[in-house]
Automatic annotation (TrEMBL):
Keywords: Chaperone, Disulfide bond, Membrane, Mitochondrion, Mitochondrion inner membrane, Protein transport, Translocation, Transport. InterPro entries: Tim10-like, Tim10-like_dom_sf. It comes from the Eukaryota. Its main location: mitochondrion. Pfam families: zf-Tim10_DDP. This is Mitochondrial import inner membrane translocase subunit. Gene3D superfamilies: Mitochondrial import inner membrane translocase subunit tim13 like domains. Mitochondrial intermembrane chaperone that participates in the import and insertion of some multi-pass transmembrane proteins into the mitochondrial inner membrane. Also required for the transfer of beta-barrel precursors from the TOM complex to the sorting and assembly machinery (SAM complex) of the outer membrane. Acts as a chaperone-like protein that protects the hydrophobic precursors from aggregation and guide them through the mitochondrial intermembrane space.
Length: 67
């Protein structure tokens, strides 16, 4: 029973996290896709990647603490 409850709580959290990645991409990519990103797009995507790594670690630690 407790496992099912944990899984139910995880899904909305993961869905919000994935949705925020899409928002970050949409915010960073302002032009048409070509062979290179602009310097502003590169910086923005780099910040998104760092944010992604930070959030991933937080989520992993939180899930590990549930066990």
């Amino acid at each position: 029973m407790r496992k099912t409850t944990r899984k139910r709580r995880r899904k909305p959290c993961l869905m919000r996290w994935l949705q925020s990645l899409h928002v970050c991409w949409d915010k960073c990519i302002t032009g048409t896709l070509g062979s290179k990103f602009s310097s502003g797009e590169s910086v923005c995507l780099s910040n998104c990647a760092q944010w992604y790594k930070d959030i991933r670690l937080i989520i992993m630690k939180r899930f590990q603490s549930m066990h």
